[in-house]
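TICKET: design request
STATUS: open
ATTACHED STRUCTURE:
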């Protein structure tokens, strides 16, 4: 027995965390250090191994494949210690009592089986709330994007973190900081939108909120995952290094610089042939050396063996483990395959340096010290508190986010409904009657409960029809069609209901699922951007009745609405608004809620319009008209959202007409509510670099502020723009701030920018790094 083990110096609270971690590392054998790099997913034993592969409902890619060969008992997996326990709460529907008991059981196995008694860290999913049975389901990340409200996102994440911490969870696998590049990708719903600054600001807010509760946030997926060819999940990524540096990586860099996220997850993607998990440039040179990241890198589920089985850059899973470890992965999730005995054998044979094992284990142990897991007072029983995963406070917050995220595309002639006082409302469409259509693929009811249909939803989720019936009398419901499939047998009843009604609410869109089990979600990519199934035909049949039709799209991605917009009596977009989504949408339709959501992605005009994001240089924009027969103008632009009141943005003033390459200026505008109701407006500042070394986007969101105004109220919004905010990767790929003219554009969307001015940047070209200014501070002055 070692001196370090006898004295347990690493439990001494008077020592710095780094010293304690180092003392524990020195006390460990090689096998014990390797044990800290692995994980065990006991809940994965519940996979439907008795069913054929095509009938199984996976919650992770190729889960059935990795389960089919049997699993190592937790006691055996913990023989030398264990890094992580995977999804104790989130794999099967457990009551609070059952969840606590199972967590304590697994902790005890790990502690009792290992020599040093080092606890395992517990991680769970938390993309739309704590992914466990009976927990509040918040709106999806794309809906957070539509709020343009970092403070609100931070409050939500703090509430999620508190629930997870009470359940004894140490790490949450969120937020997703992938920037949308192709709307057909199934995981668009999990993102915060198509603009790096919006994604970075809201993602950083989420990190701050979650970590304020003592739960480590995990940035994913590092990096390039969202840029796969044709939007196909796990597809190859062919973007250039400049696009990676200027569009994909800044979101992660911001969340590390401004929010100090504790963990980063590897991407499944290969970038120009090199899988991210094997890329030491990404995980060591950029993440560690340039950005100074000191936390842990965890693999996406089975990303380590994928290096062998899917990417084929390694011959065996053991070779894949050595490759991933050398590149910079510290912990293999969700089960130990490549980070097991193979690493020990390669160290003992001299093929692998033990320093690589020490490097990763040191990072894991430091986090365990920082989390209090190695304190003398820590016990499994003491790690779990009082749990109410669907409190009234949670639901009120979920409703607030949902209401702020609904985007009014066009009030038309029918919205709000209170001005029509309709006698009969026909509510039609699959998304009006199925509460699952309000939730994303990582919400427990859509993620796990399809395996357990007898358990119901686990929470109360009113449908849109239920919620609308509470606000407006005379509502009737007809489904019309399912989200997916070609069954048109419900068309006749839906059309008849429409003909007898004064107004129709047609609620169509997505049902989120996993790996082909839905129209949106992980592994549910789309061929084009037409509404799924026969829903477009259903809407067309309703429009042909002559009754005014308000179309509500509840979806995880934007769909092409060009054939609907000009014929509908109103048009509303909601991105999976969560369990309170019915009340939020009903409130917007009735007029009780004044909508203020803004589009974090554009709404295409045509079903084949790709790529559709607003970040386009001149040759990819409307300025290229006549060069291609494909139209580049969206139906509704990034940042757009209408309201039941009106706003005016005017009087742009710049504090300087000229600044140095290390200077700054303040852009100030006045915002007035010119309508008759209190409402929210999102003021947006864009920059255009008139001449640059490389082709740059014509507009780039550089600052925003959501403001609430009473009728007639005026506020002054001031953006402090540092010259660093103009930095980009130049011809030699160094990030530079250079001299030249900048257009400053301010308005209410990327296409509605009435305020324009110019500022000249002068001086020597500066090369900037991780210490540059990444945020544009905004001050809102009342009584302007």
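STATUS: resolved
RESOLUTION: sequence designed for all positions
ATTACHED SEQUENCE:
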């Amino acid at each position: 027995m070692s001196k370090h083990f006898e004295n347990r110096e690493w439990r001494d609270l008077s020592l710095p965390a780094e010293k304690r971690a180092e003392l524990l590392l020195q006390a460990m054998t090689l096998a014990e250090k390797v044990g800290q790099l692995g994980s065990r997913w006991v809940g994965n034993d519940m996979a439907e191994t008795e069913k054929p592969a095509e009938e199984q409902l996976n919650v992770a890619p190729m889960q059935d494949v990795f389960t089919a060969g049997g699993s190592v008992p937790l006691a055996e997996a913990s023989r030398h210690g264990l890094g992580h326990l995977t999804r104790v709460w989130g794999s099967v529907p457990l009551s609070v009592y059952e969840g606590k008991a199972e967590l304590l059981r697994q902790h005890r196995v790990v502690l009792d089986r290992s020599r040093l008694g080092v606890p395992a860290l517990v991680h769970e999913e938390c993309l739309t709330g704590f992914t466990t049975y009976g927990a509040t389901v918040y709106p999806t990340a794309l809906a957070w994007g539509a709020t343009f409200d970092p403070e609100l996102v931070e409050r939500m994440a703090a509430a999620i973190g508190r629930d997870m911490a009470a359940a004894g969870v140490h790490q949450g696998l969120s937020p997703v900081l992938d920037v949308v590049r192709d709307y057909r990708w199934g995981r668009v719903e999990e993102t915060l939108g198509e603009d790096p600054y919006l994604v970075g600001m809201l993602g950083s807010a989420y990190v701050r909120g979650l970590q304020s509760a003592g739960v480590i946030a995990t940035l994913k997926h590092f990096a390039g995952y969202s840029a796969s060819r044709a939007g196909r999940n796990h597809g190859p990524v062919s973007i250039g290094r400049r696009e990676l540096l200027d569009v994909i990586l800044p979101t992660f860099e911001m969340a590390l610089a401004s929010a100090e996220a504790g963990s980063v997850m590897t991407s499944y993607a290969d970038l120009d042939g090199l899988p991210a998990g094997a890329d030491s440039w990404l995980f060591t040179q950029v993440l560690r050396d340039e950005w100074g990241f000191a936390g842990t890198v965890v693999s996406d589920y089975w990303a380590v063996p994928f290096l062998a089985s899917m990417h084929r850059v390694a011959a065996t899973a053991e070779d894949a483990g050595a490759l991933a470890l050398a590149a910079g992965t510290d912990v293999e999730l969700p089960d130990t395959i490549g980070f097991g005995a193979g690493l020990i054998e390669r160290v003992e044979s001299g093929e692998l340096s033990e320093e690589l094992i020490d490097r990763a284990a040191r990072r894991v142990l430091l986090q365990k010290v920082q989390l209090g897991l190695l304190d003398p007072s820590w016990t499994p029983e003491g790690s779990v508190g009082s749990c109410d995963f669907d409190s009234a406070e949670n639901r009120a917050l979920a409703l607030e986010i949902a209401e702020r995220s609904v985007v009014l595309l066009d009030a038309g002639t029918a919205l709000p409904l209170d001005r029509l006082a309709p006698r009969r409302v026909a509510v039609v469409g699959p998304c009006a009657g199925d509460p699952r259509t309000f939730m994303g693929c990582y919400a427990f009811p859509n993620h796990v409960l399809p395996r357990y249909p007898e358990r119901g939803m686990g929470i109360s989720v009113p449908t849109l029809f239920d919620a609308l019936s509470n606000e407006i009398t005379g509502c009737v419901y007809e489904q019309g069609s399912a989200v997916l499939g070609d069954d048109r047998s419900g068309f006749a009843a839906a059309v008849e209901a429409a003909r007898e009604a004064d107004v129709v609410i047609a609620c169509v869109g997505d049902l989120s699922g996993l790996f082909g089990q839905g129209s949106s979600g992980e592994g549910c990519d789309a061929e084009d951007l037409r509404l799924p199934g026969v829903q477009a035909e259903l809407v067309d049949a309703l429009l042909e009745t002559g009754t005014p039709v308000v179309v509500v799209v509840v979806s995880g991605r934007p769909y092409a609405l060009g054939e609907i917009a000009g014929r509908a009596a109103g048009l509303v977009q909601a991105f999976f608004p969560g369990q309170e989504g019915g009340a939020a949408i009903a409130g917007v339709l009735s007029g009780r809620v004044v909508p203020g959501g803004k589009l974090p992605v554009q709404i295409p005009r045509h079903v084949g319009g790709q790529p559709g994001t607003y970040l386009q240089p001149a040759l990819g924009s409307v300025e290229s008209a006549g060069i291609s027969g494909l139209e580049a103008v969206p139906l509704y632009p990034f940042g757009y959202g209408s309201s039941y009141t009106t706003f005016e943005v005017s009087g742009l003033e710049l504090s300087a007409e000229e600044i140095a390459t290390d200077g700054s200026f303040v852009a100030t505008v006045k915002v007035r509510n010119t309508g008759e109701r209190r409402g929210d407006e999102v003021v947006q500042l864009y920059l255009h670099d008139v001449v640059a070394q490389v082709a740059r986007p014509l507009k780039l969101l550089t600052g925003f502020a959501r403001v609430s105004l009473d009728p007639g109220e005026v506020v002054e919004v001031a953006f402090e723009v540092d010259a660093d905010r103009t930095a980009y990767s130049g011809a030699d790929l160094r990030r530079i701030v250079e001299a030249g003219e900048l257009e400053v554009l301010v308005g209410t969307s990327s296409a509605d920018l009435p305020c324009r001015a110019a500022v000249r940047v002068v001086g020597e070209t500066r090369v900037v790094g991780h210490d540059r200014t990444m945020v544009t501070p905004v001050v809102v002055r009342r009584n302007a």
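CLOSING REMARK: Residues 241-259 form the longest helix (19 residues). Confidence is low (pLDDT under 50) at residues 1-6.
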